[in-house]
């Protein structure tokens, strides 16, 4: 299981939400407990009902 899949399951995210990245930093002098950064994305092209987003012809 990839880390993104693990954190998506731990957070209980369901489509259209997804974990797109997980960055784990080990403990250091300035972060004695380490750090976990989880990036969450919304798959807008799949759910917004806008065909121009699915085809890449949108100016967003």
Describe this structure in words.
The chain is α+β, with helices and mostly antiparallel strands and 60 residues long. It has one domain. It has three helices and two strands; from the N terminus they run H-E-E-H-H. The chain has helices spanning 3-11, 44-47, 51-55; strands at residues 17-25, 35-42. Strands 1-2 form a two-stranded antiparallel sheet. The mean pLDDT is 83.
What is the H/E order?
A: HEEHH
Radius of gyration: 16 Å
> Which parts are unreliable, with pLDDT below 50 for 5 consecutive residues or more?
none
Going across the biggest sheet, name each strand in turn.
Answer: 1-2
Number of domains: 1
Integer average pLDDT = 83
Descriptors:
two-stranded antiparallel ribbon; elongated; 60 residues; alpha+beta
In short:
By secondary structure, the chain is α+β, with helices and mostly antiparallel strands. The chain is built from three helices and two strands. It has a two-stranded antiparallel ribbon.
Fold topology:
Blueprint (H helix, E strand, L loop, with lengths): L2 H9 L5 E9 L9 E8 L1 H4 L3 H5 L5
Antiparallel strand pairs: 1-2
């Amino acid at each position: 299981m990839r880390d993104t899949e693990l954190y998506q399951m731990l957070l209980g995210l369901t489509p259209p939400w997804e974990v797109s990245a997980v960055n784990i930093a080990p403990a250091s002098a300035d972060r004695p407990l380490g750090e976990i950064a989880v990036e969450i994305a919304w798959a807008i092209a799949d759910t917004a009902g806008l065909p121009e987003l699915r085809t890449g012809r949108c100016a967003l």
